[in-house]
Amino acid sequence: MKEIKQEIKKGITVHQIKTNSFKTDLVAVFLMTKLDRETVTKNAIIPMVLRKGTKSLEDSQEINKKLEEMYGAGFECGIDKTGDNQVLRFYIETLDNAYLPEKEDLLSNVIQLLLEIIFDPKTENNAFKEEYLDSEKEKLKNILEGKKDDKAVYANLRCQEEMYNGTPFGLYKYGYIEDIEGINAKDLYEYYKNLIASCKIDIFVSGNIDEKKVLETISNNENIKKLEEREPNVQKGNAKLIRHEEKEIIEHLEVTQGNLVIGLEINENSKREKYVATVYNAILGGSATSKMFQVVREQHSLAYTAASNFLRHKNSIFIRAGIEIENYEKTVKLIKEQLEDMKSGNFTDEDIENAKTGIISMIKSIPDEQETAVTYYYGQEVGEHKLDFDEYESEINSVTKEEIMDFANKISVNTVYFLRD
Amino acid sequence: MYLIGETEVKSVPDGIAHFLEHKMFEQKSGVNSLDTLTALGVSANAYTTNNYTTYLYEATDNFYEALDEFMDYVQNPYYTDENVEKEKGIIAQEIKMYEDYPEWQVYLNTLKCLYKDFPIRLDIAGSVESIQGITKELLYLCYDNFYTPSNMAIAICGDFEPEEILGEIKKRITNTEKKEVPKRIYPDEQDAVFEKEKCVKMDISNPLFSLGFKDKPAEDPVKRHIAINIILNTIMGKSSKLNKELTDEGLILGPIDFEYEFAENYAFGIISGVSRKPREVIKRIKEELENQKKNGLNEADFIRNKKKLYGSYIIEYNSVEDTARLFLSEYFRGVVGFDYLEKYKEVTKEYAEEILKDLFKEENFAVSIVE
Lengths: 421, 371
What we know:
The complex is a heterodimer of chains A (421) and B (371). By secondary structure, chain A is α+β, with helices and mostly antiparallel strands. In chain A, 43% of the residues lie in helices and 24% in strands. Chain B is an alpha+beta fold and 371 residues long.
């Protein structure tokens, strides 16, 4: 697997990932813009409105018919946060030309369709179609009201909101209910035109592809031709946290299981530290041999889910556990003991080796899924520190116990969040 | 319940197969096999379905070292009073996690409505109460009876030489005793659905609904499965008239999902979605089914959805993990995955319409709602 990258216009980059491991090709387009309280809800609703209809495909029923004709090509769109930016994501996965019962160039058609959905929407009188916007406003409202439906996800989200309160990352990626009312079809269309003229655009095509042809298809696409060069409106680096002292938040909902999430702040940000953090997190809660799994789950039987993850772009770690409500204090105490053990070096060389082996195996399996590979390369594109597979592997291998202990001492508990009945 | 030999009937607590799966990794040496595999850099896991338990690992390196451990632990159980007791706390949290998932509740309640006695109406993990009755003796009993080579299968997918790998596997089989597989005893299940509706309240923003339909095991389940998929896609899939109407009227908040499950001795389907007026949506779905029964399926829609299905069957072979899982699951229900790519050609509009008329009848439906 290899990535070829071409900036076809300033701010617009085509990434091609050539691989013959799959029966499908994946086309992905990412639009990145600054996370901002003013625009967060508008950005969230745009992909939803775009999938409702294009210039040539009247409504979503027509779009879906077209996708079914293309042997059930799968279209997906969504919204994400990457660092202090918001990303509008669009994907189509389609059968590779080699697996079609009849010879045709499905990939080119799929690329054209995806670009049409994103850049040539259905409009009326220089505005989005009113009824499409209305139905999507309703759906967005539902998503926002449904924030609490998955308790584990909600707890994680709430802990992040509390920890990053007052900074862009503290915003909810889907925006806010109170904004919805004020969005109208004309202003939103104006905003959308401004967005596609100023955001960072990355187009990924992965599969057993003809690189020259793919590049031509994209470069000669009418919708791409219409886009101007831009200095992308994105946020580099992260806003500083406002609160550093530890805060405990307990929230009540109708639940049978308690959800505990602990946000850790990392007080250092260098390239080397990212690798140390990756190894640290693997030992703390990143695998079945980790302290969270072994101590909290296996030794004390406190939880089924007991893990941690490192947010590379935000330089923080979140620990999570689903527990019996009355075991809250006991579990927090036990987790804090694990953090102390990490500081004092109370972990073995074997723990480090296991962590490294796990991480390296994960790096090696990135090419085994197209979406994972695309996400990895996009992370490289927008991350502060670039690294390739080999460099990644050798950096991980060289992490020492002293570095991990040093790193552990630069971590502090920022937020302890507990969702209970 | 199951039968050993001719007469010996054994009954075990609900959730024991899943419990056994959790405990299978425990080793006499005190080292957990999951840790050993993780330390080799392979990703290992296990899961239990209504019909079988699967142990799996995925490796980029150390494939054979992992195979040593993998085949060793599935052939060597080690249960103690202490390690069995300890697991009860972990599994109780797993059960409670599922209790808070509205999607799981709406699904399981559909099965509870469709089936009166058949055990697929039970939670695979059992209940917090039922697992209390599990002991090391019961685990050994289940292990000895069910974990015999004639009741096991292994699927491997990747870049290797089949002959070579077969030899490597044979070398690692230590238990070669030919033992009769106990016969599972299933209660006789009535044809009719057990309850017409189950509705539970949960702390969620929008109700979830599910419309289940009870089917009987078919002579050619693959062909039937394909036909049902095409029918449901045509009538309520993303490009259907019904989907457009319900979306435009704000009655559904996302596409209608559907699935069809079958094994040797049961078959059912579930149509599900999210709606503020779930009963209204269910009424409309039933009306549209009646309407299509009367007028027949639209030819162009039928052909297009058939094309879509072809793509989806190929995509199933995109990942090594999915492919291996697929072959195992199909082995245990007596079909071959590639059959779908052949059988799909045989499914005609007439064949589908016959199933439509015969299966989608009021008497086969049951409703589950979480609101």
